[in-house]
Each structure stands twice: as structure tokens, then as C-alpha cells.
# Entry
Amino acid sequence: MRNRFSPSSSSALPVRVAGWLLDNQRLARTDSVKRIAGSLLKQPAREGDIEAQSRLGHLLCSACESARDRRIGLELLRQAARAGDPQAQLELGRLYIQPRHAEPTQARHWLEQAAAQGLPEARHLLKRHPISRG
# Structure
């Protein structure tokens, strides 16, 4: 499995371009840019690129209306989170807090993982949402 620090040369450019598109506040608001970024991330995510899995998972969970796409996005986030990606861990924690998912034990687990990697937003969510230990 590839990680964000040693992507293959074939996946590095698409992941970087997709990241640039999604990080651009003006461009990232448009559906067409989201579709382009998603297309760029799809193959690297399949190949195990953790950053691509994390970015595509977040995109599918937040921008898609299809239940199938959201399920795929959740699985991609889980893969990236298990591989140690703090952004994927944070996103899973956020998702599991929501009433639609309502899995407080999972929320706490992933937020604690993200907080341990230094993400202040994860620490803030842990304080703000009293999530009991399973």
C-alpha cells in the first residue's frame, strides 16, 4: 500500500492536481471541479494511495447524494484512517458523530486517533461532544 509520502510516480501528479483543485476555495465549490478531482483520485485510490483514498472518501461522503457513493466514500476513509491518515481519522470521527451514522464508540476512537496526531479540531470535537466510551 502506498502512502502520501511515497506515492508511485504514476499516481503522484493526479493526486497533487486533485488536491490543488479541492483546496482552491473558489474552484472547489463547483460540481464539475469535484467530478474532475474525483476522476483524478479514483485510480490512485484503487492502487492504495492513502492520500487519494482520504481525499476521494471525503469527497464522496460530503458531495454525493447517492447512498452507494457515500458507502464507498466511508470505506475509502476507513482504509486511509487505518493506514494512519489523520485527516481521514478526523473525517470518520465527524461522520460517526452525526445522527445519520450515530456510532459514538467509533467516533471517539477515530477522533482520539486524529487528536493523538496533533489535529486540534479532533481535540475540540472530543470536548464539544461528550462521546461515551463503548
Remarks:
- DSSP finds seven helices and no strands in the chain.
- The first helix runs from residue 9 to 23.
